[in-house]
Amino acid sequence: DAKTTQPTSMDCAEGRAANLPCNHSTISGNEYVYWYRQIHSQGPQYIIHGLKNNETNEMASLIITEDRKSSTLILPHATLRDTAVYYCIVRPYSSASKIIFGSGTRLSIRP
Amino acid sequence: DTGVSQDPRHKITKRGQNVTFRCDPISEHNRLYWYRQTLGQGPEFLTYFQNEAQLEKSRLLSDRFSAERPKGSFSTLEIQRTEQGDSAMYLCASSLSRGDLNSNTEAFFGQGTRLTVV
User: Fold this and answer.
1) Is B60 left (phi over 0), alpha (psi -120 to 50) or beta?
2) What's the mean pLDDT in A35-57?
């Protein structure tokens, strides 16, 4: 079973920051927070991951609370191409471990 | 490198027929995963391989399903005696996993094979 809780859907205006929350209150010490997204009719795409420090890459920023029980994925300037389902996943840091997906958050970007 | 490739992209079959899908992972990726995804749901794990060895199978993988990766490169997923409930998107992913965590990669997914059983 997925160990995360996400809102079913969200929307955001184009050009604004999209903030996607995720609760993972049962996360254990060796588990990282990963985010993937899935654009319609495509396979999931890796976005970012982190352990306890905030992380940023060319796609997004990841903010993890100090107690690690929740996190927020931030798309700083959302575009229409960011419309997708976003999955928050917790797993040990090892690409050997399988990814268990939940239902994710369907993000719609308004023009 | 063209990423993870899956073939075919779409397959329509009659109930009771057998179907086989192929996945070509990113070269040198030693891990290969199969997932199934139905409409409105997240992908569900089916099985994964480390090189040619199948290391884990989900209970979702009934005895009508079989996956192989004979030479540790491409993989096939066969469904025998298809049922309408098998209609789904079948996704393949690959990753590199070695002892040195710094050389590990994330899982990269293919575009999937959409199966429709009529």
Assistant:
1) alpha
2) 93
Strands B75-79 and B65-68: antiparallel
B116: chain A residues, CB-CB within 8 Å: none
In this complex, which of B41, B91, B97 lies closest to A103 when CB atoms are compared? B41
Contact B5, B110 (CB under 8 A): yes
**Could you give the CA distance from residue A44 to residue B82 in angstroms, rounded to a whole number?**
25
Say whether pLDDT at B99 is over 90: no
Q: Touching check for B70 and chain A: CB below 8 Å?
A: no
* Residue contact A46–B106, C-beta within 8 A: yes
One-letter amino acid at A84 equals A
Q: How far apart are the first and last CA of chain A?
A: 35
Higher pLDDT, A83 or A1: A83
How far is it, in rounded angstroms, from Cα A9 to Cα A72? 15
The answer to whether B25 contacts chain A (CB < 8 Å) is no
CB contact under 8 A, B106 and A94: no
Question: Tokens 């990963």 identify what position?
Answer: A34
The single residue listed with the structure tokens 């994330």 is: B106
Structural tokens at position A64: 């993890």
Tokens of B81: 């005696």
Q: pLDDT of B43-63, one tens digit each?
A: 999 999 999 999 999 988 889
Closest CA to B42 of B107, B88, B77: B88
pLDDT tens digits along B24-40: 999 989 999 999 999 98
Provide mean pLDDT across the span B6-10. Answer: 97
Q: Name the one residue in this structure whose structure tokens are 């005895």.
A: B63
